[in-house]
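Input chain follows. Return structure tokens only.
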Amino acid sequence: MWLKVPSEGHDEPYYWNTVSGETSWTKPSGADVEWVAQKTSNGLNYYWNERTLESAWEIPGERTNVPTASSPAVGVGVGAGSIPSANASNRATGSIPSPAASGKAAGGCGWQFFVQRKGPGLSDDGVVGGSGPRVDGGPGADAAAGERDAVDEGTLWVDVQDPDSGQRYFWNFHKRISVTFLPPGIRARWQAHTTPQGNYYYYDLQSGVSSWHMFNMAMDRHHDIEEDAQGSGGPDARWIEQGAAVLLRGLAERRYNEQIGSIHGFVNGRIAVLLPDCFMGTMILVRRRNVSPLIRGPGSIVELRGLSHTHLNGQIGTVDGANPDLFKYQIKMRDGNIKVVRPPKLQPRSCLWNISLGQSPSWLEWRQEQACLFIDSGGQHRRYSLHLPLTFSASMAEAGTQGSLEPWPMIVYLHGAGGSSFLMHSKKRLKSAGLQHAAAKFVLVSPHCDWTWKDVPGPWVTELVTVLQAAWWVDPNRIYLTGCSMGGMSTWELGAQRPDLFAAIAPVAAHHNAERTAFIARQLRQMPIFVVHSRYDDTCPMNKEEPLWNRLLQEQNRWLQVNLANEIDHCNMYEKTYCDDIMLYDWLLKRSLPVRG
């Protein structure tokens, strides 16, 4: 068995065969390396499995005494040199808690807060109890009234190459998942291609025939939809044709509402709508009443395609209006000019930019978060950082074998004044138990907060969350909001703005505007809340927060838990809450919105 070992004085690890004693600076060809050697704070060796995330004192069935020395003999190759001890200065060493740490960071103090009050809706083990409106409906439950709008029909694998990143993946029309590897023994039926004008077409690998449609997607023709238009409550059918850009509305699966996409075909009386490329092949089937023309505004972003004036193809604009008589859009270009364009000549573009779903890191590194752009409904460019779970790439690879992919919960973290993203607070704390746990278990989103203590945060952060929840890799029922200091204040405010978006919130060392106490408490009366504060906090004094906690109780909030410390100052609250222990994360993971798709 080959083992990955951090190397003192080198940026990269090396590899050790626990049976033969061989070592190598490069990963041996064909070797399946899952285990990483680590050391506790008192020098004891233990082992961490990068795939399963388990820790153990011994690797099952293998020799596990790691010899100590300076380093393998550089340049000698496999079989030469001996294995050095793990060293805490290396980026991987000590980054995973030891088996006996019980959630504490190596050398850390663990959870240093005590529960000062706990709502009656929280049972002794912390799980939400009772029959309140926030209780998790359980696996497979559907809280949305009526029939689900996205229907799985048939089984189909499509070989797709992302036109922007060049990444190859496989999309399953039945399960609505995308994977990087197909299940054993399965071959893709279709290959997706695009014309120079940006239109998709499909090559049938069985018959060798190319067509604009795949499977039975052309079963319903445009005139069938038009005949069904009368009395259906949807838009005029002339807005609905192959390739037309549309807006989704009124779906029981609320995560897709207000998302834009393009009509990809017609299946069994439904319209197949393909979401933009950043969602990696997400397609849903909807009724005609659930699609509408694009609305005017800088948030309706489109790309021109297939025009006879070829110099315009590929240019980006926004919808400035629609002509109901001609069934054309007025598109405002970047230079201010207006172009009149038919719906099929528009490729919807997401307001999420610069997201890469390619190979993601399997261990936590400094500055590895993605710097992303969000264009809000007002056309303003907003910045945020994104970190995909450490198991993201491995899970993508395994999803084809398993035939399914579980989405990840998402934490939205709001920083304090002058702060940074969730994983950029402190380089030395990357190895802590808390940050390692968060990086492995959650999608982490860190908006760049462009407001001050005195401001009520604008709605762009909740707009960002609304769009992100449509991604197949995000669990829309387990989105959590947390922040420290000014970010804690923002957590109260944004949670109150959109309590329907979040399964729970966790304000840390927070402050709030006393004039908004009644509003915040009323809006959050059904919200699970995990408050973390210190009696020693002089920056955000506890006595200024207690009126809000009391008002929440008056509003009959049954899911409020207040955690206090006696001797932690304001500047150390981030580390003590998010780094030293996994308590906050475990509490959040027990909260879920009713399943809504």
